[in-house]
Structures are given as C-alpha cells and as structure tokens.
Amino acid sequence: MRITEKIFNFNKGHYPKIPEGCKNANSTKAKNEYLLKLNELFPECDVGFLREKLCSVDQNHLQQVIDRLLTMDKSGDKGGYPRRVNQFIIEPWELVRSQSYRKAVRYRLYNDFPETWRSTIKAILAENNFDYRKSFEKLKDLTTNNWWNSIFSIFRRKLYKEMENPELLEEIQKLQYVKLEEQSKADHEIAKQVNFSEYTNNDQLITCGCCYGDFPFEDLTCCSEGHLFCKDCINHLVQEGLFGQGSLRGKQINCIEQAGCDGYFTDDQLKSTLLPDVFKNYLDSLVEHSLKQSNLSLVQCPFCNYCEVDDNDLFLTFKQFRIPKSSKSFILLASLPVAILPLFTSFESIFSIFTALNVVIILILPQIVWNVMGVYPLKAWVSELDNIVKRVKRRRRGNVFKCQNPECRKTSCLLCSRESKPFHKCYEREQDSLRLFVEKAMADAVKRTCPKCHISFTKADGCNKMTCRCGYVMCYLCRKDLRQESYAHFCDHFRPIPGQKCKKCNKCDLYKTEDEEKVIKEAATKARNEFLKSHPEARGVNLLENNVIGPVTNEDDNYYRETFEKAVEKVVDYLLP
C-alpha cells in the first residue's frame, strides 16, 4: 500500500515499465527497445555513447540515461555528448549484442583467422561492438600473411566448434549475397564484351540515329515509332534537359530523329535506359510540374518532393478584394460580427436579438453593396482575417510536418524548413556539433579498447606495452595480449638508425608508433568533409542565426492591436470546423 501510494501520489502514476514482449528489463531485447526510444529522444547523439550509458545501468534505464544526457547538455558546452551525422538512424551492428551472438562471432573469427592472436581478435571485436562484418574487414586489413605465421599457426591455434546463431547466420548470408552480386556484375560486363565481339565479327552492329556510332541491339533504345538511339545519347539528352538548360523538366521526352518524328520515349523505356538517379529526377520533375499546374497552395517536405495541400489557405491572394474561395469562408466572414458582438454587449437587456440582427445588417449589407459597385473597403480586413485564420490553423496542426514518402519519412519544421526532432529549436547553430563530431573522430583514430573491461584509452607517452587499470596488458600496435609474453613480444635487434624497420624479424617495435599527428589530421579532415556534406548549411557562418528584430514602437497601439487579434483568434477558432 505504501508503494502504491508513493507511485500514484508522488510519481503521478509514472513508473519504469518493462518493454512489451520482454521478461527481464536487463535482457538484450529490452535494452535494444530502450536504445530505440533514446534514439527518438536524442537523434543526434552518438549511438555508441547511448549504448554505453544504457549498459552501465541495471534499473530504471530510460530515466537514468535521460537525466545524464540532459545534465551533460546543460552543463558546459551545449550538446556535451558526442554527435553523429545520420540522425534517427541506427544500423543493425550498433544494437546491443547478446552473449550468444558474441561467443558465436568470436569462435567464427578464431577459425577465419587462425594465424591471428586471440587477444587481437578480442580487441578488434571490442572496438567494433562485436559485429562480424566490421571485425572481419578490420582483421583482414590488419593481418599480415607471412611464412613465419603460416608455419606456427597450426601449433598455437586449434579449430573451434562454431556455434549456431540465427543472427550471425543471417549476416553471413548477406555477405555471401553481396559477393554474388559483385560477381554477377563482373559476369555481366564480360557478357557484354563477348556480345559486342560477336556482333562485330558477324557485321551486325546497328548505327545510332544521333551519334552515328555502331552498337549491339542490347545497347540501343527506340522511340514509339521505332527509331533507334544508343543509351549514352539518351542519357546525355535527359541530363542536359534536367540539370543544364532545364528545357525537359516536367515534359515528355520526344524522339530526336533529325528527319523529324512524332514519337516519344515511354517511361518503361526510360527506366531501362537512364541512370537510376537521372530517371528519379525526371519523375520528380513531372510531379513538380503537375503540382504547379494545379494552382494549389502546398506544403512541401524540404528533403524531397513530397507535398500536401495547405488547408490554411482559405482565401484567395488579393490583388483586389474578391469574395472568398468557398461558401464556408464567406459564412465565416459574415459570422464574425455576430460572434464579436457579445464581446461589446455585457447586458442582454441593452440589445435585443432584433437589435443585434440590425447591427449585423448595418455592418455587412453596405460592404456587399460597395463590392458590387467596385469599392473595396474590407480589403485590409480580409487580409488580416486571412492571416489570423492561418495562425489558428497552424496552431491546430502544429509546426511539424511528417513526410509520407517511403524513401524519406523525415519530420521537418514548417518554420525553419529543417528536420524536426525532440527539443528542436529553429535556426540552432551547428558549429558546436561540427566541433564535437570532429573531435570524436580524432579521438577514435588513436584510441584503443581493452577487451576485458571495455575501457577506451590512448597512449600519451612511453613504450607500446600498454597496461590497463584492470590488469590487462596489450600491445599498442597489434593489440596482442602480453600478460605472459611481456617485453619478449617486441623486437630487440640493434639498428644503426633508430626507428628503422628491422630486417631480421617481424616483431613489433617497442617505441615506434604510427604517425599519430598524420592519422589525427586525416581523420579530422574526413570527419569535417563528411559533416559538411550532410549539413551544407553549416558552411556559412551566420546562416543559422535568427533575424534580429528591432525595438518596438507605439507600445500602446501594439497592445490594443494584439488584444483585438487575440479576441478575433478565439472567435475564428470557435467558428472554424
């Protein structure tokens, strides 16, 4: 009873809940559910950072992690947590991995790389969140195949029995599918070459009607009248018409036969002929042209061509006063005096219903007569009413626009036309995000991760024998476990020039390391280019600042005007359906 009273009275009925379908809040499935929710709340935060904070708590996961992130955000620099480029996106390898998957991946890599030390494999797995594909590629680049390792690998490694894990098997199948796709593309190129040679030997090549080159029939496309052209000519034609002169945007692609032809290229022919991105832009231009011809007021997604009809635009754009578009709008305008009238009449005994109707007739009837005579005294009123209606509609709908394009699905802000996210602020400057992103990339370029306690660290000075605070000892270069081998792992041959590569053995150097300054500089340049590619608006210095509004004048007039507009907004909000 005391616990129930505390939950309902002090916590207002809120308490941590186990995700649906999970039996334990600390299970892998539950933690992944928590990670997806944190991704929705902090879409710009680095996924690895979220995963690390989530795995460091064992109860009340969401509340503890959210409190920590908000505390970091408020203390010191804005956005005290590391950022990422692709917001709202979590790759499968970034999720929390189960113990069975980790063990299956480790044994699989033991057998895939029998010449590599197990401690090295563990360190690589820790750095890549135990993902098989990324660890496999890293080990493939790191492993040096030489005769010394090939001979002694059979003595220091036994084959491990691989564990069956559905998730790992699915990843392996995807890798095999990618290899088959690459092989299929290579076979297709060889088949094209063989086909071209057979056409050439049999003197069966067909001449293009544009460039007059000779091509096999498979490399040609035809218009609706049968004129043949090579695919390169059609691609150049459409690209120039879309991105160059723009003469083909929103138009049908007609035949380019020099003698004249009324034919055209169908969408199916263009789809098989044009490059995928060119064909997509062509279809987008057709949609854009059709929407412009419809003369509708639209709200468009800033990230794609998806748009919806703006239901805020109830009235025409007035070069001169006209009757509203629909009868509903006219009824709204005509009903406004009736709705405002009670604001100015405090006692029912002062004005009877008949008197109120007379007032309405006095207000509305002259306006209709003047409109017929060509005099428009309500032009300013209608314009103001139009703005008020838009504000009411916008407040009802909100400033968030959700794109329904399956390839986009982004949520944008209607005020700043940028992606909307939790705690969104319009025109927020991103210089801090750029700095944090680059700094994280620079740190990741030189950091190492202990495979025992999973603590990341860097070497500031000293030799390449690194000792973690948990007692684990590893080589800074190859990441091998040195708890037994110690300094015997490093080369002890004399070299006349310090730092020169040893010609007698392949052991790691005790002091020489990679050029960290060069590695950090390359990582920073790559991260900066990647960030600016995803955020082109960050290239300018003052592009994200809000416009400065000058001092307010005529405060009394503004006060009365705002009060009147607020009253009208309440009336319009009541009258609108």
TrEMBL record:
The chain crosses the membrane at residues 329-347, 353-373. Keywords: Membrane, Metal-binding, Repeat, Transferase, Transmembrane, Transmembrane helix, Ubl conjugation pathway, Zinc, Zinc-finger. Residues 204-506 form the RING-type domain. PROSITE patterns: TRIAD. CDD domains: Rcat_RBR_RNF216, RING-HC_RBR_RNF216. GO terms for molecular function: transferase activity; zinc ion binding. InterPro entries: LUBAC_E3_Ligases (IPR051628), Rcat_RBR_RNF216 (IPR047546), RING-HC_RBR_RNF216 (IPR047544), TRIAD_supradom (IPR044066). Pathway: Protein modification; protein ubiquitination. It holds the Pfam family Rcat_RNF216. This is RING-type domain-containing protein. It comes from Rhizophagus irregularis (strain DAOM 181602 / DAOM 197198 / MUCL 43194).
